[in-house]
């Protein structure tokens, strides 16, 4: 457990999205690798809190909710045994301490020697150039993972997630939300991150290809991250994570999404060949 004298450490890799393109699945399986450390909660929501003002209304609540869930998990696993007070304190600090680079660096200092560390926050795909530059300043050698999903399918899955538990949800209005469409603007996202980190440090995969050849993906990812392939990566890879409810896409909503995504398709070209 790091102490006050332990220097901060910043991620060796980030998964920046896309939302509804397998980031939770990636996170869950990467955690099983003995040479990988990831925070106790998925999606720290740090850089978007700093650089996307519209996100600040919910990011604190997100961290608190997930930190509470993680602490309950620690208590449940301990049962009547001894509690790891240091671990509970570290998880609580994720939600309780003020956000800063020092806060972020203290989290990843828990990785310890001999393991790479990283996190997955799909909202980072929306960062403006100055936000990406901030990421780069913390670790210029960081590697970036971007999972893609066919844009229309991604947006429809996103809408279903937003509608969960809301009987009065307006799918047609939500289909025009800039936040929904921007997360599928892969040409913009990829160009922005490559401009700062270089193409060689940004790994891009279509989730449809991953589903067809999962073993190839995990071997490619291990090589990209500089870690040995491990069977734990694939031991549970067939298990879906956070599968949303099935629902037929209404024709009017599809038309609205296609209208909003038209510039993306124009710049991207055939999805099956993007990014080339």
TrEMBL record:
The terms under GO molecular function for this entry are: sulfotransferase activity
Q: Per UniProt, which keywords does this protein have?
A: Transferase
Q: Does the keyword section mention Iron-sulfur?
A: no
Q: Which residues cross the membrane?
A: none
Q: Which InterPro entries match?
A: NST/OST (IPR037359), P-loop_NTPase (IPR027417)
> Which Gene3D superfamilies does the entry link to?
P-loop containing nucleotide triphosphate hydrolases
Q: What is the top-level taxon of the source organism?
A: Bacteria
Keyword Transferase: yes or no? yes
Descriptive protein name: Sulfotransferase
């Amino acid at each position: 457990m790091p102490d006050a004298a332990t220097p901060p450490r910043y991620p060796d890799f980030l998964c920046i999205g896309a939302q509804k393109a397998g980031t939770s699945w990636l996170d869950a399986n990467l955690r099983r690798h003995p040479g990988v450390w990831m925070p106790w909660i998925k999606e720290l929501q740090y850089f978007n809190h700093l650089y996307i003002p519209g996100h600040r209304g919910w990011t604190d609540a997100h961290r608190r909710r997930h930190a509470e869930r993680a602490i309950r998990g620690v208590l449940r696993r301990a049962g009547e045994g001894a509690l790891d007070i240091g671990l509970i304190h570290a998880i609580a600090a994720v939600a309780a301490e003020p956000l800063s680079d020092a806060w972020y660096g203290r989290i990843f200092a828990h990785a310890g020697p001999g393991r790479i560390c990283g996190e997955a926050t799909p909202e980072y795909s929306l960062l403006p150039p100055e936000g990406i530059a901030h990421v780069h300043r913390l670790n210029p050698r960081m590697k970036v993972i971007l999972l893609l999903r066919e844009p229309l399918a991604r947006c429809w899955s996103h809408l279903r997630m937003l509608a969960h538990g809301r009987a009065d949800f307006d799918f047609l209005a939500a289909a025009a939300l800039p936040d929904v469409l921007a997360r599928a603007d892969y040409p913009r996202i990829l160009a922005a991150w490559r401009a700062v980190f270089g193409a060689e440090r940004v790994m891009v995969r279509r989730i449809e290809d991953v589903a067809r050849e999962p073993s190839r993906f995990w071997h490619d990812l291990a090589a990209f991250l500089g870690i040995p392939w491990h069977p734990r990566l694939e031991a549970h890879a067939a298990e879906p994570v956070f599968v949303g409810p099935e629902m037929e896409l209404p024709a009017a909503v599809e038309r609205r999404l296609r209208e909003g995504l038209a510039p993306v398709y124009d710049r991207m070209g055939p999805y099956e060949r993007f990014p080339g």
